[in-house]
């Protein structure tokens, strides 16, 4: 039973140690001294609020003072704070730390300390190291970390005879650890030691009361808000904190703890944001690794090209020298052989001597004539001796002075990539987003572009950019949410070099899914007045001869009729959006929706006559501009024309005509919500609603258009991957 209990207790202790290790592992970097890069040992709080080991402070001060004494020589070794110093030098360190470095005889003594945390010289004041507080809280955390790192290594009793036993408690007053037997011996009942405070085994002994370093017998009980450090009442009364604003220790404790708790809670609440940043940084690390490898590869390839060029030049030069050498040697060798022939009994002379032995005059003359010419040439060559070839190769000296200068200046050039700019005129948002960009300069264009985009959401603080690589200068982005704003940006890449990001452009998606249709060329289509293109995406009203014949039959005071055309597809339910463009020269265009049960009435209505006494947008024929939209009309339309958008009058709307006239957008949109019974008219370029009203959606709804005189309407085409190519061809 005892073995089982011990095993269970041991397992429980191991589990606790594991938890402590996991909790403490993440804060290890906060427990490292910036000077020695090891865990803090008796850390001191500097005036700049950084912590440094007590021993490191002494060693840095010694090295710092030594550098002044040596005139800043390299032997001071400031880069290594943990300097091995002899025991005889410790007195000097303590003397420096107590007295400080004197600036001059008239100024107070002061010690300057180069803080390894903020890299600034910190004034420690007249008391030097002795004026610094020891950070007991940090020391306790470090001790917990050490214990977690040591895992199950026990703390032994300080008073047992060898071999020592494992300690069971530590006395904070005696600053020692005891086993059960030794604790009873040294803390007997009925004595003052029996009242000492004891805790579990530890090596971190901290005083119960924090004393003032300047007034060693005084307890700190106030907090200086100016110097941000605890002080005693003597510091406030006559010390250097006399004129400073102080508060009670309990108030400072409460205030600082509340602030720290709130800040910690805020950071914990932003954990997802921190993780997103970490993920982004991880991606940047990987991208940096990839780009560095790519840059190395490109640099190697560049130098390989240079090597290849130099090798070719080297081979060509060596071949030229070798060829010239062979030619020269051949000439000189021939000349040597010729001169050797001039020697007695050798070559030409020997041959001539043999010819002289000929006694037959005819034969002699026949041979001697040619021989005599050769002898004369040899004689002349002796008089004007000149080598047949030069021995120097001055013509083959390679001048590399300029190339040396160029190679000496060889370095990484600036990326030279222009920052791409998103062309907002060519970019558009419809059923999909078509994003186009261009580069201001024509040189050093990028090999590939990266387009990033994300949805704008005020509630989301973590911005996650979606990325896509593009070989050209345009991209169609799909799967975007309706009635949402998106930010787009682009950058160029050329090998491992990338340009800065372009300016972000914000585009808004349509308020509803895009509804596709064509103009109906059958139902009510008047081909005498209207003209459709072959694809039925554009309709044009021409004021031609048929219109003149029609106007001849009209009564005096009537101008002309409206020619209607509808879409070939109807809408029964849901919310839909479509867009179109009206030519700027258009005189009068009406756009809107018509229910299926009123289409016949639309094409045969006598109210389609535009006259001074009757307006389609009027509720009566008084001719008053105050008239509002009449529900008896067969369809819901708004009026466009002469580069203006006319908002229909309603009882709630302003009656001033000028307030109802807006500039005509380059692209208009209509959003029909059958479920709510409302129709809205939009500036499709900015996706801004210009006018909205109720509509009867009892039947199937069709897009409706009416034109008069010279006018044209073009349906907006869906953005596809081939849309950009089609427009470029046009």
Automatic annotation (TrEMBL):
Keywords: Coiled coil, Cytoplasm, Cytoskeleton, Metal-binding, Microtubule, Repeat, Transferase, Ubl conjugation pathway, Zinc, Zinc-finger. Residues 207-249 form the B box-type domain. GO terms for cellular component: acrosomal vesicle; microtubule. InterPro entries: B30.2/SPRY, B30.2/SPRY_sf, Bbox_C, ConA-like_dom_sf, COS_domain, E3_ligase_FN3/SPRY, FN3_dom, FN3_sf. It is found in: Cytoplasm, Cytoskeleton. Residues 278-305 form a coiled coil. One of its GO terms (biological process) is acrosome reaction. Belongs to the TRIM/RBCC family. This is E3 ubiquitin-protein ligase TRIM36 isoform X1.
């Amino acid at each position: 039973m005892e073995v089982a209990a011990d095993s269970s207790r041991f397992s429980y202790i191991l589990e606790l140690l594991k938890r402590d290790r996991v909790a403490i592992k993440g804060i290890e970097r906060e427990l490292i001294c910036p000077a020695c890069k090891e865990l803090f040992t008796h850390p001191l709080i500097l005036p700049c609020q950084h912590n440094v080991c007590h021993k490191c402070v002494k060693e840095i001060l010694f090295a710092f003072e030594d550098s002044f004494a040596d005139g800043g020589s390299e032997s001071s070794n400031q880069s290594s704070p943990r300097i091995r110093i002899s025991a005889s030098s410790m007195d000097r360190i303590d003397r420096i730390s107590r007295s400080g470095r004197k600036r001059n005889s008239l100024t107070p003594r002061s010690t300057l300390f180069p803080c390894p945390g903020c890299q600034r010289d910190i004034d420690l004041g007249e008391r030097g190291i002795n004026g610094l507080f020891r950070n007991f809280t940090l020391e306790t955390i470090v001790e917990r970390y050490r214990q977690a790192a040591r895992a199950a290594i026990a703390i032994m009793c300080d008073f047992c005879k060898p071999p020592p036993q494992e300690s069971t408690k530590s006395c904070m007053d005696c600053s020692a650890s005891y086993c059960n037997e030794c604790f009873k011996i040294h803390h007997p009942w009925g004595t003052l030691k029996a009242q000492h405070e004891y805790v579990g085994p530890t090596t971190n002994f901290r005083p119960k009361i924090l004393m003032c370093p300047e007034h060693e017998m005084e307890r700190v009980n106030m907090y200086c808000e100016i110097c941000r450090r605890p002080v005693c009442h003597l510091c406030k009364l006559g010390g250097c904190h006399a004129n400073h604003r102080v508060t009670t220790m309990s108030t400072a404790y409460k205030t600082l703890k509340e602030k720290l708790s709130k800040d910690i809670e805020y950071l914990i609440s932003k954990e997802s944001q921190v993780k997103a940043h970490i993920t982004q940084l991880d991606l940047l690390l990987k991208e940096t690794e990839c780009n560095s490898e790519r840059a190395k590869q490109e640099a190697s390839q560049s130098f390989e090209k240079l090597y290849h060029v130099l090798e070719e030049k080297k081979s060509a030069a060596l071949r030229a020298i070798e060829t010239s050498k062979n030619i020269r040697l051949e000439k000189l060798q021939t000349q040597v052989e010729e001169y050797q022939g001039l020697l007695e009994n050798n070559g030409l002379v020997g041959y001539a001597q043999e010819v002289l032995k000929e006694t037959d005059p005819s034969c002699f003359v026949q041979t001697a004539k040619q021989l005599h010419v050769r002898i004369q040439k040899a004689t002349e060559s002796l008089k004007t001796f000149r080598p047949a070839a030069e021995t120097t190769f001055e013509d083959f000296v390679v001048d590399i002075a300029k190339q040396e200068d160029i190679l000496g200046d060889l370095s990484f050039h600036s990326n030279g990539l222009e920052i791409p700019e998103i062309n907002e005129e060519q970019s558009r948002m419809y059923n999909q987003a078509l994003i186009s960009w261009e580069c201001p300069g024509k040189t050093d264009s990028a090999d590939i572009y990266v387009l990033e985009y994300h949805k704008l959401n005020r509630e989301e603080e973590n911005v996650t950019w979606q990325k896509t690589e593009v070989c050209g200068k345009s991209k169609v982005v799909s799967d975007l949410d309706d009635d949402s704003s998106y930010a787009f940006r682009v950058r160029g890449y050329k090998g491992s070099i990338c340009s800065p990001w372009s300016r972000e452009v914000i585009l808004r998606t349509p308020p509803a899914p895009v509804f596709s249709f064509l103009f109906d060329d059958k139902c009510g289509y008047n081909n005498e007045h209207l003209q459709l293109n072959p694809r039925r995406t554009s309709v044009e009203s021409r004021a031609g001869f048929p219109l003149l014949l029609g106007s001849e039959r009209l009564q005096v005071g009537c101008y002309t009729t409206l020619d209607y055309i509808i879409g070939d597809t109807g809408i029964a339910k849901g919310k839909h959006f479509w867009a179109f463009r009206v030519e700027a020269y258009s005189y009068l265009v009406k756009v809107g929706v018509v229910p299926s049960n009123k289409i016949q009435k639309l094409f045969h209505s006598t109210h389609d006559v535009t006259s001074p006494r009757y307006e389609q947008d009027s509720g009566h024929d008084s001719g008053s501009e105050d008239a509002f939209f009449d529900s008896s009309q067969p369809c819901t339309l708004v009026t466009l024309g002469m580069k203006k958008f006319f908002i229909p009058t309603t009882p709630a709307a302003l009656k001033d005509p000028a307030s109802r006239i807006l500039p005509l957008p380059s692209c208009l949109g209509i959003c029909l919500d059958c479920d709510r019974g409302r129709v809205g008219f939009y500036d499709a370029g900015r996706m801004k609603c210009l006018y909205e009203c109720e509509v009867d959606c009892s039947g199937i709804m069709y897009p409706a258009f009416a034109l008069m005189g010279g006018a044209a309407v073009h349906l907006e085409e869906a953005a596809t991957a081939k849309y950009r190519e089609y427009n470029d061809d046009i």
